[in-house]
Amino acid sequence: MTKRRITEQEKKYYEQRSQLIAGCSSDYIADAPFLFANRIQVTQMLSRIELFKMILDVPGAIIECGVHRGNALMLYFQLSVVLESYAINRSIIGFDTFEGFRSITDKDPEDINEKMFSDTNYDLLQQIIEVNDIIRPVNRIPRCEIVKGDITVTAPEFVKNRSDLVVAMLILDTDLYQPTKVALETFVPLMPKGGIVVLDEVCYRNFPGETLALKEKFNLNNVALKRMPFDTCTGYFKIGD
Description:
The chain is 38% helix and 13% strand. The protein is α/β, with parallel strands linked by helices. The two termini are 31 Å apart.
């Protein structure tokens, strides 16, 4: 969420929430995350849980393009640990620059810049993955990894070096046209029938790039594009439907 078009009420909410958070210890916040969660965060969590359940019987990796601070990536990590503890062939792989938007083109909004979503920490995310691995079943086999850099470069390179890669779920949350296009071209050929492609901003005029890339890759007449009834603009479809 860029917060570039929030309302006065939303500004007031975030200001007051920040004041409340400032008065709490880090352990208090970590142990009671829903105390400070908002409607958007809970909606995203519910969507991701429902999507994860759809591919429980589909072998392959969960790939998220657009990680930001890693909240959704770690949710998928925890869901996998809880619901399929011994699925040693399930990988959770996140791609992000961890430095903000890159590969902005004239097909993306004019009011965005490279600083947006740069408020993230690659090293912290890597460390939290390692901390969670301490108590994870079968922790000698890697479950979660992150790939730093421009997806238009790192995704094709990653595939060249992973002959074992099959993709059960592809999550497209870069907000931008070019990274979405490259991700579709790179990962969709590795998806079996029943795999799921997720677009976080589908049919969304404030970020049309994901939808434009989708329409260039697929004939929409042949895609059973669906949405969660409680979510705002997340869409998904199954490969082969």
